[in-house]
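Example 3.2
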Amino acid sequence: MGHISEVLHEKSQGGDGFPEDVFLSPETSSVLFLLGWHCNDSSEPCVVFNKRSFRVRQPGDLCFPGGRVAPRLDFFLSKVLKSPLSPLARWRFWPQWRDQRREQANRLSLLLATGLRESVEEMRLNPFGVTFLGPMPSEDLYMFRRILYPMVVWIHRQKHFLPNWEVDKIVYVPVRELLNPDAYACYRLHFNVDGKRGGDGTIQDFPCFRHQNEKEQEVLWGATFRIVMSFLEMVFGFTAPSTDSLPVIYNTLDQRYLSGSF
């Protein structure tokens, strides 16, 4: 955990950080990049994902818990996070942010509060049972005009979660699998937005990761895939293979994917 925290902190020193209007922009969302010892009840580290239910947009996708900032509520919760013994206050780099980067520290605390609040709502994560490891660079969710701000945390003792209606199930992926080049593929998507069978649409290729979960194969792609790849490159120096050399997986996304109305 120490190495991860140091790498994330060093990365956060460059770039533009959190913009001034991050609180007010309707595009702002915060997500929690969840790590822990959850794979097969062993000591193997893994990444913890939510699989989106068919009652929300992007059904079936793997994602991290999170959502838009609720300014009043999250501002209050960010004050709580600055108190002693909170995950943020226990972060080894918090005194440096608080004393030398005050405005950035305030924005960080609010975004972390948003991610923790949403994670409590979506999967009943214990917000005081985690260690905050640091922020990651933002990621654009182009399809929905959102900007995601990932916050990396380590889950300690919590082994069971209670997903709400937004989440189909919790998916645990070993870090070892994410570092295996053979687990990657080309995701060839047909976007059939008019809803007609065989209708015209755009076909586009995306890099993806495949995880065999019990009897079902999960596919990680899109913005969450890019966040995970950014993490793996920063921490482990790992880069996914080029899609040109990968096997192809086919799927079709229609208007229901965008609206969540099934």
